[in-house]
Amino acid sequence: MQAAALAEEARRTQRRAQPLQAGTEVLGGARAAATDTAAGPTAAGANAAPSVSRPCMHPGTARSPCQAAYDRAHAALAGAACLVWDTETSGFAGCVLDIGWVLADSSGAELASYSQLWRLPARERIHSQAYREHKISAVTLADQGVDPNPELLELFALISEVLARSIPVVAHNASFDVGRLNHTALRHGVSVTPLRSVSMLCTMHNATKHCRLRKRGGKAFKPPRNEELFEHLFNHRKPQGCLHRALPDCRVTLACFTKGRQLHWW
Question: pTM for this one?
Answer without folding.
Answer: 0.81
